[in-house]
Task: structure prediction
Amino acid sequence: MTMVEMAAAGGFRTPFNVRLMARGCPAFGERGLDLGMHSKKRRFFGNGKLLMCCWEIREVCSSGKGTDKCEEWLIDLSKGSNYRGRSRIMPFSPPKSRFASKQEKFFSRCTPRSIGPQSRDSPPLRDTGIANEKDWGINLLNECVKESGTNEDGSTWYCEGGEELGENGFRCRWTMMGGQHPNGSSEWKETWWEKSDWTGYKELGVEKSGRNGEGDSWWETWKEVLHQDEWSNLARIERGAQKQAKSGTENVEWYENWWEKYDAKGWTEKGAHKYGKLNEQSWWEKWGEHYDGRGSVLKWTDKWAETKLGTKWGDKWEERFFASIGSRHGETWHVSPSSERWSRKWGEEHLGNGKVHKYGNSTSGEIWDIVVEEETYYEAEPHYGWADVVGDSTQLLSIQPREKPPGIFPNLDFSPPPEWPPEP
Result:
C-alpha cells in the first residue's frame, strides 16, 4: 500500500497517510524549581463548534438548526453565522503499522549483538497535538557507545550515545540511532536527549525524520522544558511539537507547530499554527488561548483556504471574558475567482446580568441588533493546566543535574526569553 492515498482529515478531501519532514523547535530559556500546584475550576462553552470537514469550513450553529454538508458550505455562503467554539480538525486515519510494537521500538536497545534498534519508519499523525513524554518512551543510554551493524535483509543500522558538558553546570545526555535500506531508497533517524544546568533548567526532547521508497519524507520534533521565570520567579513548564510531511509522488504536504506554556500560579498559554496543501488547494489555521490564572480568558481562531483558480474562503472569531462579562465577535467570508467578496460579521456583548447584546451584518443585506436573555458560558480555566502537566512530566522533573562544587553559584541570565514559536 502506497503512503499517498491523498490527504483528507483537517484539510483534504481524500484519505491520506502522508509522511513527514521539517524544521526544528526553538530552544527555550532558563531555570526551574518551585513546583506549586493549582486547583481547578472548570466551566465549558455552551455555544456551537466550528469543524473543518474535508478542506472546507463547516459551521454548526448554536441555534441547533442543523448542520450543512461540507459541499454546501462552499456553494451557499448565505447560511447563518453564530458563535463558534474552538475548531477541531479531523485527524488522519492512522496507517496500519508495518513495524515493531511500541514496546519493541523503545526497549530494543543498542547492544553488542548483531540485532540493532528497530526501525522507526513511522510518520507522525495529523492534528494530534503535543504528546506526553511517556508516549515517546525515551530511554537514554547510561554509557557512551558507538555501534553499527547489518540486518538479515541487508539493511544497516547504527546507534550512538554520549554526553556533552559545558559552563554553568550544563550537561546534555543523548542517544542517536538510525538505519537505511540496502539500496538507500529509505532511511530513518531518531535522536533523544536530556539537558540540565545549575540554574534548575531541565529539558527533554526527541527529533525524528525519515523517507521511504516512494520519496515521501517526514520530520518531527518534540520538547518539554522546566525553568524558572526570571521576572515572576515562578516555575514554568513549556512544551512544543513541530511536524511536517511531504509526498514524493503528489503535490501534497502539511506542517504543524504546537506550543503550550504553564506556570505554578495557573497562567497558561496554548496555540498552534497549521498549513496544508493538496494539489490546487491550500489551507491555513492559527488559534490561541490565554488564561491569566485570575479568571481572565482570551481565545481566538483564524482559518482560511484558497485554490489556484482564485477562490478563497475563511472564518475567524475571538472572545474575551472575565467574571462572566465579555465579548465575542467573528467573520465568515468568501471571495470568488472574479474577486467578488461576500462576508458576514457578527458580535456578542455579554453584560453579566443575564442579557446578551447580539449584532451583525452581511454584504448580502442582512442586519441584526437585538438584546436577549441568555446565560453566558465560557471556560474560565484550561481543561489541562499546571497540575496536569506536572503529573505528566515525571521524567523531565527527575533529570539529575551535575553535582555542584561547594562555593560555586550559577550565572543567571536575565535577558528577555526567546520568542516562541517562530513563524514557519
Remarks:
- Confidence is low (pLDDT under 50) at residues 1-109.
- DSSP finds four helices and 19 strands in the chain.
- Helices lie at 70-75, 102-107, 386-391, 394-397.
